[in-house]
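Table S2 (continued). Query chain:
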Amino acid sequence: MRRFLYDTNVFVYALGGSSPYREPCRAIVEHAAAGRLDGEASADLVQEFLHQRMRQVGDRALAVAAARRIPALCRLHDVRGSDLTLALWLFETHERITARDATFAAVALNRGLGAILSADQDFDEVPGLERIDPRDAVRVAELTDTPSG
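Corresponding output:
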């Protein structure tokens, strides 16, 4: 399996309302739960997911229950000082990227992960980081070693 970093939106879309990303992201989460997908994430992803989920459902207990499932689906990385240094540079030099996404990109790059699974096209401008769109079944299958189709 190929190493990659998850973006929060994969988990948000998987539990969210109607969207072209909902079913592909649900399938990704199912692959992760079955052990066919071995993704990694910044520990900050859980906090961001919790925030987004709370906004969606308005119920603390439901939001926390959903957030607690994420660590079982991926390997979490703490954010280090070197990640913040790189994130600041990425944010400063790439106008479209947000501060949170710059941190995720830095975590990926500093851990030797050349890919991020994300619906967010702003990652496309980060040098050394390949964005894989969750709707791209062929590319997702390459991550899972599972045939697309």
